[in-house]
Amino acid sequence: MNSRKVLKGKARKLREQGKGKRPNQSKTLTKEKEDILWEHGQIGGKSLRSLINTMGWLITQHFGLRGRQEHHQMKVEDFLLERDDDGNEFLTFAEGLTKTRQGGLNVKPRLVKPKMFSTGDEERCPIKVFKLYLAKRPTEIKTSGHFTFLVIDKPVSNAWYKKTPL
User: Fold this and answer.
1) Among 15, 92, 107, 132, which is 20 to 30 Å from 42 by CA?
2) pLDDT one-digit tens code per residue, 28-86
3) Structural domain that includes position 156
4) What is the 3-state secondary structure (H, E, C) of the chain?
5) Which pTM value belongs to this model?
């Protein structure tokens, strides 16, 4: 019993010194840092790798997908491109079962269905990036199948991605 008290006291002192448990929270991406990523081509549609990075980032940001499994299970058919009453394009995602929403008798659907809207920006519009990504997929799988695929290092055609899921 005394050893337990000593251990707790030692742990408390170490935490006061900044050691021990660290926050398990991700750091937010500031607007300035996001601009740097766009400017340096880390995200955007200029290269095959930046396009796949951008799609992962946009989908996480707009639709709240968290884990690797959720991204792996995505299919092109899960996305629906629509227009609102004013003619603005937006994308919805038909989410399957997830870690936090597992279905069953006590289903708790999202109160608001997440949407990704067109911004009209020539380079940074999420809908334009989404359409570009679909256009760079192999012809046979442009509108169906897994959402993310392996990158072709040196593409010789319009397709930038292999038919092998990521």
Assistant:
1) 92
2) 788 999 899 999 999 998 888 898 889 888 888 888 776 666 766 788 888 899 999 99
3) 34-165
4) CHHHHHHHHHHHHHHHCCCCCCCCCCCCCCHHHHHHHHHCCCCCCCCHHHHHHHHHHHHHHHHCCCCHHHHHHCEHHHEEEEECCCCCEEEEECCCCCCCCCCCCCCCCCCCCCEEECCCCCCCCHHHHHHHHHHCCCHHHCCCCECCEEECCCCCCCCCEEEEEC
5) 0.71
Residues 33, 34, 36, 40, CA torsion sign: positive
Residue with tokens 């005394």: 2
Specify if 134 maps to a domain: yes
User: Domain count of the chain?
Assistant: 1
Q: CA–CA separation, 41 vs 98, rounded Å?
A: 32
Q: What is the pLDDT of residues 116-164, one digit of tens each?
A: 999 988 888 999 999 998 888 888 877 878 777 777 777 777 777 777 6
Helices (H), 25-122: 31-39, 48-63, 68-73
Q: How far is CA 23 from CA 11, 15, 16, 66, 152, in A?
A: 16, 12, 14, 18, 38
Ramachandran angles phi, psi of 153, nearest 5°: -60, -45
